[in-house]
Amino acid sequence: xxxNNDPERPLSESDLDIVAIKRVLGGDREAYRALVERYGGALxxxxxxxxGSAEEGEDAAQEILVRAFKALGGFRVGSSFPAWLFAIxxxxxxxxxxxxxxxxxxxxxxxxxxxxxxxxxRPGPAESALExxxxxxxxxxxxxxxxxxxxIVELRYFAGLSVADAAEALGIGEEAAKARLFRARKxxxxxxxxxxxxxxPGSIQG
Amino acid sequence: MMDCRDIExxxxxxxxxxxxxxxxxxGLREHLSTCAGCAAAKGGLANLLGRDSGADRRGRATPExxxxxxxxxxxxxxxxxxxxxxxxxxxxxxxxxxxxxAAVLAVxxxxxxxxxxxxxxxxxxxxxxxxxxxxxxxxxxxxFNDWDATAARxxxxxxxxxxxxxxxxKKDSLYSYNFVIDGEVWIIDPxxxxxxxxxxxxxxxxxxx
Lengths: 206, 209
Description:
The structure holds two protein chains of two kinds.
Chain A: H1 13-25, H2 32-51, H3 54-70, H4 81-104, H5 115-118, H6 129-143, H7 147-158, H8 163-170, H9 174-192
Helix pairs in contact in A: 2-3, 2-4, 3-4, 4-8, 7-8, 7-9, 8-9
Chain B: H1 4-17, H2 22-34, H3 36-50, H4 54-57, H5 64-74, H6 93-101, E1 110-117, E2 123-131, E3 138-142, E4 153-154, E5 163-170, E6 174-181, E7 185-187, E8 195-197, E9 203-208
Antiparallel strand pairs in B: 1-2, 2-5, 3-4, 3-6, 6-7, 6-9, 8-9
């Protein structure tokens, strides 16, 4: 059913996405499984980082995938499925975080879990304590980024989207996305590299 | 084996270009595992760099338990609706046979479509062509024109000749479409090799650009 028009060109991941979407729209619910398998893990990691807990991240990722399923008829051919999915995710995380902030005004905020716990889907041996510490330092450095820069870093480095897909998810051009990522890398390098003097916001430069 | 200076150079280039190869990442991690100074100073960065090498992103599978849970939730949901309208007479073998018997469309000589890359740009010119000498009208409806059976009509240059139409479509996309004959019979492109079920008991042809 998905044979290739051009034998020289293998089906890309994005072709496979669109075949799966068309099959779902054609009544084959089970075809959605391929999309969940391909993007579910990245979505959980992304939501965990945005929402600050592994459990909430998984919960949110499930709900986002159900919403995406229901909205699949609105997916435009010619756009990228991961970009579309993570745009839904970004909106969802934003409104859920806002709701959480409201309820936290009453309850004290729980200590954030370590990033290692957030990335529970990581395969392989549970990295050493040292690596867990590194991951936590990265999460702290990313959390301290200006919001505009942080959103692209989360999509690129936590969800693992390509620069083009991350740009599409945020509704910005690819060049703007590259420029934001470049700024982010400069800031992150400064804040993470202990041998580099760190000039954070508000500190005296020079 | 990378030394401390090599590590600095890799990080420098990553900051500039956002790129690091899987091999460089491996060298960097190897160095960090033997050099306590670098491990302390660069550990956080190494973690971040790992996310920029494609190698680290792949193979992070979605747990099966998670997939099953999502699929279970979806089974309770109504199927999402596609933009394709329920065709008045969806293509079915029986309908096809009946029409052929009525000699409305007695002869299918074959059909073809050709895609040419437009010079530069991100569009491709696609020629849809269908030989249906008995048809009164032929149109192409697909997700590129919201399944409008009147938007893209094929023309023929001479009586009995093939119906043809060139459309400019965005490349790097996968479209599905049908030919619509006499405004009511939806068929797949006889020249097609790929097709998908359309959910209405018929099929759509797939066009990959």
